[in-house]
Write a structure and sequence with these properties.
Layout lengths: L5 E12 L2 E7 L2 E3 L3 E5 L6 H8 L7 E6 L2 E2 L5 H7 L1 E4 L11 H13 L9 H5 L2 H10 L15 H14 L4 E5 L7 H14 L4 E5 L3 H7 L2 E6 L2 E6 L1 H4 L3 H6 L3 H7 L3
Length: about 260
């Protein structure tokens, strides 16, 4: 693989908490323009890995490279400015602002105006066109005037993806994007991720195997903080070590997802 094809790479990424190794020597290579999924049983180190990539946690050892540059020592704000944007597992929208206003706030943050709350409403109207285009991208145009609290759970997550897109990410980190959703919402979000990934890179932590099997180009399986297997779903799902890691109902889910 050409080095310029790799947007994000980790080398020997490790995190210890008082002697407990949560992430152990993880070497990730995320290909530009792909959907890359991190999966694994509970406690496998997936979210810790995300927290290391966005610098919510400091690695004990190892390196993180973004677009070929070592960002291991950089602050979270610097990493966000580079275009590594994370959408949180818990819905992170302002419940009492309208859907349009939520996206506008995210656009303001990108402009560096986020704390200028006394700006006139009219000066923010300039962002409406951009905001509506983002809402159209996530099929929320007709809900622009509703407050976020009025949206269904799945549409709140779609709004969250719109606010993440407003930050113009090069790499979107999605943490459990379909958690707690019914089938209809899962399908909507799955299609949405596929759509937004058409011109950017997505790294996602996801439990739902039917989502992973249908949209991920590459899957990295973590177990006890270490990489157990990596490759396309068809290869990974047949790996005996992976099947063993997903014992019981999860095993059936893993093999029967496609």
């Amino acid at each position: 693989m050409n080095p310029s094809d790799i947007i994000l790479e980790t080398r020997g990424l490790t995190k210890e908490f008082k002697g407990f190794v949560a992430v152990s020597q993880v070497n990730l290579q995320v290909r530009r323009g792909s959907i890359h999924a991190l999966i694994g049983p509970n406690g496998a180190g997936k979210t810790t890995c995300f927290n290391l990539l966005t610098k919510f946690l400091i690695p004990t050892a190892g390196q993180i490279l973004f677009e070929g540059q070592d960002i291991t020592a950089e602050a979270p704000a610097h990493i966000a400015r580079r275009g590594v944007i994370r959408s949180f597992q818990i819905s992170a929208v302002f419940p009492h602002l309208t859907v349009l206003e939520n996206v506008r706030v995210a656009l303001q943050r990108k402009l560096g105006n986020s704390f200028v709350f006394w700006r006139s409403e009219r000066s923010l109207d300039a962002l409406n066109g951009q905001a509506m285009a983002l809402l159209a991208a996530v099929d929320l145009e007709q809900y622009a005037g509703l407050t976020a609290v009025e949206l269904s759970y799945g549409r709140k997550r779609a709004l969250e993806i719109a606010t993440t897109l407003a930050m113009d990410p090069k790499l979107m980190l999605l943490d459990e994007p379909t958690q707690g959703m019914g089938l209809e919402d899962v399908d909507r979000i799955k299609q949405l991720i596929k759509k937004v990934a058409a011109d950017r890179t997505v790294l996602m932590v996801e439990h739902n195997m039917s989502v992973v099997s249908s949209i991920a180009d590459t899957i990295t399986v973590l177990q006890r903080g270490a990489t157990l297997a990596e490759g396309p779903y068809d290869v990974v799902s047949k790996n005996p070590a992976v099947i063993e890691a997903y014992m019981g109902s999860a095993q059936t889910e893993l093999v029967g997802a496609h």
